[in-house]
Amino acid sequence: MNLNRDFPRILTLLRKEKAISQKQASQDLGIPQALLSHYEKGIREPGLEFVVRAARYYGVSCDYLLGCTPHRSGAVISVQDLPGKPLGRPRKHHSLAEYYQRVLTGSLHIVFALLKKINNETLTRELSSFLSAAVYRVFRVLYSANPQAPQGLFRLDKNLYTASVEAGSMLAMAKSRCLLNGEMVSGHKGVSREEAPALSPLALEKEFPQYAPALFDLIHQTELAIQPEPESLYTVRQQEAVQETRESVG
Asked: Which residues fall within 8 angstroms of residue 172, CB to CB, at 6 or more apart?
């Protein structure tokens, strides 16, 4: 059975999320600990029977365990399943834009909820600057697509703004990492370990049941875009879901 690189990672994640030792998991699954260790490290590949048994043991679908979907139930999330308001009157070409709008909105809801919980103003300011810079770059590219659009809206030079914004973004992220490591940044206190929320996929689902699917989709789609897997089953299903949405609004 030829498994992808996601199986060992997810198998290990589920065990750690359940807070059990490898020894306990191997006993419950009826295999030697050494064999489970090989599965989790990707040294050996299990048969289909073990995949089904592990999926039942951890309460997830086989598709999730194999990395074919970021959702435990194995579902593929459509636009209608995500929170958010539609982009005006339904039109065919709106479906993909609306999907990403809801994915980003739902994901940002969780990000800012976590920032509120951490309650560190400097961290909130730096990460908000990073996110604002990304939106700025996207909007300016769209705005400037028409050469007749007046550039007086912007202060940054049109030939230098990309490098300037990118440098500012990198600095904001570097400061955020330092703060989250508990370090001082420009005289501002970092985040202690006690202040950092304990997170896991299951914890996110429980705390943010409405928005977690959007975040999981964002993570999955982003990683596939950066490091694509040929003929990804999840990608095929997502495309089918988008196509169904386009047909329904057409």
From this structure: 126, 127, 129, 130, 133
